[in-house]
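User: For my dataset I need records formatted as: sequence, then structure tokens, nothing else. Please produce one.
Assistant:
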Amino acid sequence: MSLEYAVETVNLTKVFGNFKAVDNLNLKIRKGEIFGLLGPNGAGKTTTIRMILGLIKPTKGVVRVFGIQVEKERRKVLKMTGYMPQRFSLYEDLTVEENLMLYALLYGYNRREARERVKELLEELFLEEFKDRLAGNLSGGMKQRLALAVALVHKPKLVIVDEPTAGVDPPLRRYFWKYFKDLNKRGVTIIVTTHYMDEAENCDRLALIFRGRKIAEGTPLEIKRLAFGGDIIEILLEAPSPPKLEGIEGVKKILESERYNGTVSIKVLVDDASSRLISIVKRLESNGVKVVRGSQVYVGLEDAFIKLIGEQAQ
């Protein structure tokens, strides 16, 4: 395994009875990136995470974390990874501070070190004023913050968060992502699963999983281009009919056109909007066509997600 990878899975497979939850999954997650696992419910995201952490054994395949084979040296892997599960699983009859102290001691801190680390996390995650409250009496958002603090108590190099913002309000969602980015700047690799496509835009790279298989991987921009075959631009012209664009470098096809009161609006698929839009506009104007405006059409990850899943489901 190359030293540049925090996580590498090779033909990772998990079968439960007759159900194949994960099917020959190959991932290479680089050190120091925020990597997103996307997919509908039942796609195999949580099962994949649990195999990466060594919580369940693969039916087939290998997982390495920072070069260490998980099945052979699970204890080493646990010391360098932090996990925030989808469901709150801490001790509800202990206070916030007691939960943090317990886990700090379990990870090998002495009492003085544990108190210092817990104090740091209480301040960092704005839990100081709730430190004496029972975990079971916290709001959903507070529970999420506590779960994240526990995942970070031993200063892991890799943090895995499973649907960290499910069911929390937008300001807290924003706060979590700001915190993840700050954590990432400190050199921590983060793997996150999410159903929120706007959040997935924050990831450096993504893998889209459907029915246990990886169907797409890349940056958010690469995923969108994969789904649609390129970028989409929209040009408004003063013209009686759509102009011919065949032969212009970078143009793949006209997707649609509309006429209205002497103007024509066309949507064009190009290989790269950033480099093609200006040259297409100049070409049209040199041919005597008046261009009113031209711009790239924003395509969301949700659009790409639906399109790629739809193609697989057919």
